[in-house]
Specification:
This protein has about 425 residues and is α+β, with helices and mostly antiparallel strands. It folds into 3 domains: about 1-85, no CATH class; about 105-120 and about 270-415, 3-Layer(aba) Sandwich (Trna Endonuclease, Chain: A, domain 1); about 130-265, no CATH class. Helices cover about 30% and strands about 20% of the residues. The protein is built from 10 helices and 22 strands. It has helices spanning about 45-55, 175-180, 180-195, 205-220, 230-235, 235-245, 245-260, 305-320, 370-390, 405-415; strands at about 35, 75-80, 105, 115-120, 120-130, 140-145, 150-155, 160, 160-165, 170, 225-230, 265-270, 275-280, 285, 290-295, 300-305, 320-325, 335-340, 340-345, 350-355, 360-365, 395-400. It has a 4-stranded mixed sheet with strand order 17-20-21-22, sandwiched between helices. Strand 8 (about 160) and strand 9 (about 160-165) form a beta hairpin. The longest helix has 20 residues, at about 370-390. The termini are far apart.
């Protein structure tokens, strides 16, 4: 069957896909797995548990009628020697009930006038000024909390895939931090900032490194980093320890400050095969999550993750400033950003076309974390790059902090 997947008239014609678990990342979360088949030898019980875990994502969180319990769900597993826990139920148990019907989410051909398009940008390249500068008065403050910084790390050797807690040892991070001189902290931070900037640097890389070291030293010795509680920062050793243990956060903050201040030009790089994407490109998909029909969206349904989103969607569907809107769900609209040296993907919540013709990227967010602030720095840069490039209309962005502020946001941007 595996050798004839998808071939009409062959044993495997009814199988849609066979996915190798080894090709899937740790964060893989598919809620539609119903069958798992082991097609190779398993060398450890832990591996069996991991494979079985691929089928243990719930498809529905609806309560059973008359009970405060979720309905039982099942996965069929073949060829995996899994004996970690006994089977649930017995041979006389009734078969599981059929799943609840799913809603089909799709673009409607009769609503073609509500189609929304956007530039499909792979990345944004920077052209930096030859002479880098850093205006400390414009640099956003960075706060390091001493209470949130770990000072002890426990390590245990791993034997046969499991930690041996009988040989647990502690590393005194505070002692290691004392051994770090400020100049070494500066060089290490500058080296990481340099690695982030050098791919798009046109001139001499040696000159770039020298400038980055100078700006890093200027920033770390300027007092721009706020330490909480203040008493912790009065001692130079403790302050240096805190810098060492939060170096990734400092590098991210410093790199963004240098990057956004010294970019002479920002150039969007488009996907050559699909430079423009639109809501009409979305493939139909199914969901059992709560959803509501739309009136001013090219997509027939808006899947609701919270009451707040339901309120926002309701307002977008009736507000006089909105010409068309769509929730960014399964659309493929993504903005790359870098956080703590890792390239990640950011998916804004909504795209709105205003009656003035302008485009608004809308984010719904309550409390902000540092990563959320970084996302919006790159979102602002994406909008700036698109507007400078031209040809896609006027784009803007905003954040809705509560359902009541959406009306004012739409009025402000519709000009």
């Amino acid at each position: 069957m595996v050798d004839t997947v998808g071939k009409v008239g062959q044993p495997g014609e009814r199988i849609q896909a066979v996915v190798s678990v080894g090709m899937l990342s740790e964060g893989w979360d598919a809620q539609t797995v119903t069958h798992i088949m082991g097609l190779r030898a398993f060398t450890s019980q832990l591996l069996c548990e991991q494979v079985v875990g691929r089928g243990l994502r719930r498809t529905s969180y609806d309560m059973q009628e008359g009970k405060e319990l979720f309905a039982p769900e099942y996965v069929n597993i073949f060829g995996v020697p899994f004996t970690f826990m006994p089977h649930e139920g017995d041979e006389d148990a009734l078969p599981p009930p059929p799943p609840q019907p799913a809603s089909r989410v799709q673009a409607l051909a009769e609503r073609r006038e509500l189609e929304i398009a956007w530039p499909n940008i792979l990345r944004i390249e920077h052209e930096y000024r030859p002479e880098l500068s850093l205006d400390l008065s414009k640099t956003k403050p960075l706060t390091l909390d001493a209470y949130e910084t770990p000072t002890i790390a426990d390590l245990a050797p791993v034997i046969d895939g499991k930690p041996d807690v009988t040989k647990l040892t502690s590393i005194d991070v505070e002692r290691l931090g004392r051994e770090q001189r400020l100049q070494r902290v500066i060089f290490q931070s500058a080296a990481e900032v340099y690695d982030l900037m050098k791919p798009t640097w046109k001139a001499s890389r040696e000159y770039l490194l020298a400038q980055v070291i100078r700006l890093t030293e200027k920033y770390l010795t300027s007092g721009q980093i706020v330490v909480s509680p203040p008493l912790f920062s009065q001692d130079e050793v403790h302050r240096r320890i805190l810098y060492t243990l939060n170096m990734t956060k400092i590098v991210q903050h410093l790199w963004e400050a240098i990057r956004f201040e010294n970019a002479q030009a920002i150039v969007p790089v488009f996907d050559k095969e699909r430079p423009i994407r639109c809501t009409g490109d979305m493939q139909p998909w199914f969901t059992r999550r709560p959803c509501e029909p739309t009136a001013r969206s090219h997509i027939n349904l808006c899947v609701l993750d919270s009451r707040w989103e339901a309120s926002e969607a309701f307002e977008l569907d009736r507000n006089s400033n909105v010409s068309a809107w769509v929730k960014n769900d399964h659309l493929g609209f993504e903005i790359l950003y870098v956080y703590r040296g890792i390239i990640l993907k950011y998916r804004p919540d909504y795209i709105v076309r205003l009656t003035s013709g302008g485009m608004l990227i809308l984010e719904v967010k309550g409390q902000d974390m540092q990563q959320d602030k970084t996302k919006r720095e790159f979102l602002a840069e994406w909008v700036q790059a698109v507007n400078q490039y031209g040809g896609f209309g006027e784009w803007s962005w905003d954040v809705s902090r509560n359902p009541k502020d959406l009306i004012n946001i739409l009025q402000t941007h519709n000009h």
